[in-house]
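Design review, sub-item: ligand-bound model
Attendees: FS, YL, KQ
YL presented the inputs for the zinc ion complex:
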Amino acid sequence: MIRHTLALLIATTALAQQAPKPLAALRMPLTIADFKTPEVKIDIEGEATPATKAWAEEAAQHVREWWPVVVRMLSTQDFKTPDQFVLHFKPELKVPAYRTPEGLFISIAWITKRPDDFGMVIHEMTHAIQDYRRTPRDAGWLVEGIADYIRYYHYEPESPRPRFNPDKASYRDAYGTTAAFLAWAMHKYDRRLVRELDAALRRADYNDALFEKLTGKPVDALWQEFIATVKR
Ligand SMILES: [Zn+2]
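KQ shared the predicted structure:
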């Protein structure tokens, strides 16, 4: 009985130390406008091997499955879905993949070397849904961070995270580092964070003060708090 009371006391004290969060900050908001998914097409340059064809089909299937999910996780109320989304496969590219208004361009050399890298397709597909018209020059890190946040924390949450050096890293490093920071801040402070950042990028009026507005802390202070949780 005494032990039970003590446990209850400890639990109550721990609860009292946490500032109460409103429900809106705890739940993941979703956009529920009536979306369609674009028709996903495949275009392979040159003589396609059976392995490339099979990979392309699987990638297309991942896009059909995940497009509607990602659309709901971002501030896409006014997003205009393209009729078609084309996966172009090219023998060699300087990067694994990139996105243009014509769709995705994917390196066959890369997928031959890394046949498990469908996450890269989801990252690029997320850019197609972000579709920011006028990204402020200094917000590129956030655009990449959101795409990797979708990839690593929703599409493949069990895959190994990209590692970074906490002594040298910055939230402006983009990609996996920014994604880890966003995921932590979402969990700790406000589940609306990525959605609100995305909304600001769509309006082309993002600035760092938005972090403080949503979490109560300036982005640099948040980063210091996050980095203290990362193992060295
Ligand atoms: Zn990217």
